[in-house]
Structures are given as structure tokens and as C-alpha cells.
Amino acid sequence: MKKLTLLSVAIFSTLSFSSFAKDCDSSLLPSWKDSLSKSAIVKFVEQTNDKQADTYVPVEDRIAVFDNDGTLWSEKPYYFQLAFALDRVKEMASEHPEWKTEVPFKSVLADDIKSVLSSGEEGLLKLILATHSGMTVEQYQNDVDQWLAVAKDERFDKAYTELTYQPMKEMLTYLQDNNFKTYIVSGGGVDFMRVWAPEAYNIPTEQIIGSALKYNYSYKDGKPTVVKDSSILTIDDKAGKVSNIQHIIGKKPILAVGNSDGDQAMMQWATSQANSMAMIVHHTDAEREWQYDRESHVGRLDKALDEANQRDEWVLIDMKSDWCQVY
Edge-to-edge, what's the strand order for the sheet holding 223-234? Predict the structure, then answer.
């Protein structure tokens, strides 16, 4: 009887492994398991393409918007753009002796990240304004490009651009192949994302929307320049995402994908029409990435999670259960 039990376990284990392998062996969205979320994506695209059905959407109306931080790449332990700002503060410190005693700069120089984060939105905004303004757009983007070439995430020991989600990139490609126009609509800085996101996601710079500082144009000695100001043009978060989509795209998207309460407004707006869908990347994988939702200070998913559990057209993507691989 004992041998039979062991044999049964062995057979079950083999079957389980085979099933897992089969789930992850597909030419369509190969990094996705055969889950409800994958089925929802495929069904949505097929219905959108079916000219004989009332779910058909003309190509010119196939607009899909994606958040970036926590949706297309990781955002823990803190936003990668903040990591850039922290390194920039250290590089610029010799020019600003006052930072040795000024919050939150002194915390940055002391490598006291906990105090930096506890400085709240006001403190983090000070860091961004100090490190992202007073230079031409070209100078700023060159600094970002050089930083990305050498900076690495401490936990995974990978370049930040290697921490983009493979399943989400496959989803973007699948949508693009089916005549969707894909946009990034992120709280991250637009000039920061435009350095690397076009190559990472096959999304052109003009389809990247984000937070931005004001720009100052000048023309001197036959040379035009655009300098990043130290005042805010737009914060692309929450209701601000809806405003910027309307202002820049001019059409309501039929698909909105995010991961936090900051994306709730654009998901509500997108799904206020027929033949639409919203998706939420739910961070449930502590081993391969991070696990967080309601209590997180970064990428908090609380109210939007409640709404997703009440609406059929909002689909939760369970990172741990639905993805064969993360990066």
C-alpha cells in the first residue's frame, strides 16, 4: 500500500509538471499560463476584430492605454525614476553645500532611504525639481541614458531596463499586431520614459504620456533651445490621466491597463462605453518580484481592487498564478 501511495504521488507530480509546462508552451502570449486573464485578452482582441459581431471596433478606435510603473516594469522598492534622482543628488552635492542640512537632501546624502520616503510627496517633489530642471531636454535625456547604462537594481542585480515584464511586452505586441494603437499613460516623467521606453515596448515617443515640468523656449544667436523649468506642467496621475488622455489622444480608450489606485480613473473612463475592458496587474509574487497591494506606499491597490471584484469587465492579472515568467 505504501508503494502504491508513493507511485501515485510520483505520477501526480509528473502530471502536474507536464500540465505546467503545457500551460507555458504556446505560440500566443507564451509567457502567460492558460488562465482567465490570458483568455480575457485573446477573447477581447478576437471580438474587436470580428466584423460580423456587434463587438467589432474600427481600427481607428482601437486605443489601448497602459500605466508604466508596476504595470510594464517593476516599481519596488521605490520608483526607478526616484533612484535616478537619488544618484543625481549625490553627483550634484558639491555644487549645493546647503543640502548637507536641508531635508530631504541630507537624508539622500546619508543613504537614509527610509527618511527620504517618509518626507512624503513634498520631499520627493523637491528631489525631482532639483535634479530634473535647469537644463535642456537633450542634456537631461543624455543624463538619463548614461545612468541607465550603468545603474542596477540592488535586489535582482539587473539593469532597470531588464526589469520590464515579459508577459506585458507580449501583450503589447499582440495588440499592436491586431491594429491597436498603444499608449503609455504613466505618473512617471515623460522625458524620463522617452529615453528608453520606445525600444523596450515598441511605442513611439509621441505615444508616451507622463508627468512633466514646464518648458522654456529661447532663441539666441540663431540657436533655439528648450529648457526644463522648475515648475510643474502636469501630474499624470488619477484624474490627471483622464485629462491628459483627452487632451493629447482625443479619444476614449477601449482598453486601460494599470496596477494601482492611481490608474482607477482612467480604467473607469475607458469602461464607461461598450466593447471595452480594464486590466489590473496584481503583485502577488514575492519570490519572483514583489507582493503588495492595499498597504503599500508605492503602487497602492485598494479602491481599484474592490472595484475590480465587482465589475465583470475589469480583469485581475495574478502575477504569481498567471505568468510563466516575470522578466
Answer: 223-234, 208-220, 181-189, 63-66, 255-258, 277-282, 314-318
Going along the chain from its start, the domains and CATH numbers come out as 36-48+56-79+157-322 (3.40.50.1000)
Question: pLDDT digits over 160-207, tens only?
Answer: 999 999 999 999 999 999 999 999 999 999 999 999 999 999 999 999
Task: Report the predicted TM-score, pTM, of the whole model to 2 decimal places.
Answer: 0.92
Per-residue 3-state assignment (H helix, E strand, C coil) for the chain: CHHHHHHHHHHHHHHHHHHHHHHCCCCCCCCECCCHHHHHHHHHHHHHHCCCCCCCCCHHHCEEEECCECCCECCCCCCHHHHHHHHHHHHHHHHCHHHHCCCCHHHHHCCCHHHHHHCHHHHHHHHHHHHHCCCEHHHHHHHHHHHHHHCEECCCCEEHHHCECHHHHHHHHHHHHCCCEEEEEEEEEHHHHHHHHHHHHCCCHHHEEEEEEEEEEEEECCEEEEEEEEEEEECCCCHHHHHHHHHHHCCCCCEEEECCHHHHHHHHHHCCCCCCEEEEEECECCCCCCECCCCCCCCCCCHHHHHHCCCCCEEEEEHHHHECCCC
pLDDT score at 26: 84
List residues bridging with 73 in a β-sheet: 69, 164
